[in-house]
Design a protein that fits this description.
about 425 residues, alpha/beta, 2 domains, 4-stranded mixed β-sheet, about 50% helix
Length: about 425
C-alpha cells in the first residue's frame, strides 16, 4: 500500500459549487428553531412557504435533522447536481436502497440498518443495540435514547412503516422550497461561492491539510503523523491512503460543519466537505451572520462532559483555570508529549472550553469561565426541554403552523 503524505492528499482535493448538500442544509436551517444564522432569511422564507409545505412538515414530526441525512441517498461518487437531477434521483431510487442509504447516514452501522430495512428489528430495539461510540452522535441527532415523541424518531418511523409516503412527502417539500424561495437564494449566492472557492484554493496551496482544516472550519481532527482524519463524533476515521478524492463545496448554511465520507471500493472512499463560509449572504438584502457567533462551536453538554471526562484533559483544565498557558508549557508541567497535548486541545476547542490568542510568538490558551457557568442550565435544557412543549410545533389548528424563529415555539399556533 502506498504511503501518502499530506501533499499527496492535497493533490486529490477538488473545489466546486453543488446543490448536493446546500439545499438540505438550507432546509435544516429553515426548520430548526435554534438555528443561529440567517434569521431574516428564515423569517422571510417561512412566510413564503404555502400551507401544504407545513402539512408535509407535520407528517415528518417537524424534524429539521432529517434533511442532512437525505443527501446520503444520492450517488456517492457524483458530486454535482442541479435541482432536476436531484429530484429525479430521489424519485427513481429503489425503495430499499433509499431507506438503507438514508438510515446509514444517521446510524452508521450496516448490520443494524439492514435489520431495520427488512423489518426484523424495531427502531426502539435498534437504539438499544447501537455501539457506545455511536451513542453520542445519535443523541445529538435525537435518535438515542429512543423517544417516540422525538421529531427525528417520528420521521424515521414513517420512513420504515410507509416509505413511499415518506419519499413523496420529502420530494414535495423540496420542490415547494425550491419554487417558492430557494431558487432565488441559490442564484444570489453563485458569485459569492466562486469568490469563496478561489480563496480556499489559495489557502489549500499555502499550508498543510491539517492547517487548512482548521482555517476552513472543518469539523475534523487531522493527524498529520498518523495520516488520518477523524470525526469529532461517532469514532469515524479515514486514513489519507484510503481517500480517493476530497471535494470542497462552499456552504452558507452548514454552520454545524457536517461532512460525509462514502466508500467507493473495498478500501477507498470519497469525502465531501461542504465547508461553511460565514461571509456569504443568502440574498441581496440579508446581512451575513456575525463571524464571531458562528466561529464558536455550538455548546453541547455531551462534548463538554466527554472533554472533561479524560484525566489528562481535566488536569489541563485545572491548570488553565489558574492562568492562560501555551501548549508547550502544559506539555512540560504534565510531562506529556506536545503531540498528545495538541490532540487534547483539539477536543477542548471543539467542546467550546477554550479560547486561543497569539501573543509574543506563541499561542496562549485560556479557559472560558462562562461556559462552565452555563453548563448546568444548558444540560438541564438539553435533557428535559428538547422534546417537550418547547419543540417545533407540528399539530395544526385553525391557523397555519410556522416553526418559531429562534424561540423554540410556534408562531401563530397553539397546542392540541
Amino acid at each position: 500500500m502506498r504511503d501518502l503524505n499530506s501533499d499527496d492528499l492535497r493533490s486529490r482535493c477538488r473545489f466546486g459549487v453543488s446543490l448536493r448538500f446546500e439545499i438540505f442544509f438550507a432546509l435544516h436551517s429553515l426548520l430548526n428553531p435554534e438555528a443561529r444564522i440567517h434569521l431574516n432569511w428564515r423569517q422571510k422564507t417561512l412566510l413564503q412557504m404555502p400551507t401544504p409545505f407545513f402539512d408535509s412538515l407535520a407528517l415528518l414530526g417537524g424534524s429539521a435533522e432529517i434533511w442532512p441525512s437525505i443527501e446520503g441517498t444520492l450517488p456517492h461518487s457524483q458530486p454535482f447536481f442541479d435541482i432536476d437531477q436531484l429530484l429525479t434521483r430521489l424519485e427513481n431510487l429503489r425503495m430499499k436502497q433509499f431507506q438503507r442509504d438514508l438510515l446509514l447516514g444517521d446510524i452508521h452501522v450496516e448490520e443494524i440498518v439492514e435489520q431495520l430495512v427488512d423489518g426484523s428489528m424495531s427502531l426502539s430495539t435498534a437504539m438499544g443495540k447501537v455501539p457506545k461510540v455511536k451513542r453520542d452522535w445519535l443523541s445529538f441527532l435525537g435518535l438515542y435514547p429512543y423517544d417516540a415523541k422525538s421529531p427525528l424518531v417520528i420521521a424515521v418511523e414513517l420512513l420504515l412503516k410507509d416509505p413511499e409516503h415518506f419519499r413523496k412527502t420529502v420530494i414535495n417539500m423540496i420542490q415547494m422550497f425550491w419554487d417558492h424561495s430557494f431558487k432565488n437564494t441559490w442564484s444570489s449566492m453563485q458569485n459569492q461561492f466562486q469568490h469563496s472557492l478561489e480563496e480556499k484554493e489559495r489557502l489549500m496551496n499555502s499550508c498543510s491539510f491539517g492547517e487548512f482544516a482548521q482555517h476552513a472550519l472543518l469539523r475534523v481532527r487531522v493527524d498529520e503523523n498518523e495520516k488520518s482524519i477523524e470525526a469529532i463524533r461517532g469514532g469515524y476515521k479515514l486514513f489519507f491512503d484510503d481517500i480517493e478524492s476530497c471535494y470542497f463545496f462552499p456552504s452558507a448554511f452548514n454552520d454545524r460543519r457536517y461532512w460525509s465520507g462514502y466508500k467507493t471500493g473495498e478500501k477507498t472512499s470519497i469525502v465531501y466537505f461542504p465547508y461553511f463560509d460565514p461571509a456569504v449572504r443568502v440574498d441581496n438584502q440579508a446581512e451575513p451572520p456575525r463571524v464571531a457567533e458562528v466561529l464558536e462551536p455550538e455548546l453541547d453538554p455531551a462534548l463538554i462532559f466527554r472533554a472533561l471526562g479524560d484525566s489528562t484533559r481535566y488536569a489541563m483544565v485545572s491548570l488553565l483555570a489558574r492562568r492562560p498557558m501555551t501548549s508547550v508549557e502544559i506539555s512540560k508541567v504534565l510531562a506529556v508529549s506536545k503531540a498528545t497535548i495538541s490532540h487534547h486541545i483539539a477536543q477542548m476547542r471543539e467542546a467550546g472550553l477554550i479560547s486561543e490568542k497569539y501573543e509574543t510568538g506563541a499561542v496562549k490558551i485560556s479557559l472560558k469561565r462562562d461556559v462552565f457557568e452555563k453548563l448546568s442550565s444548558l444540560t438541564l435544557r438539553k435533557l428535559f426541554d428538547d422534546f417537550g412543549d418547547s419543540a417545533v410545533i407540528i399539530s395544526r389548528t385553525r391557523k397555519n403552523i410556522r416553526p418559531g424563529i429562534g424561540t423554540g415555539t410556534g408562531a401563530d399556533s397553539s397546542h392540541s
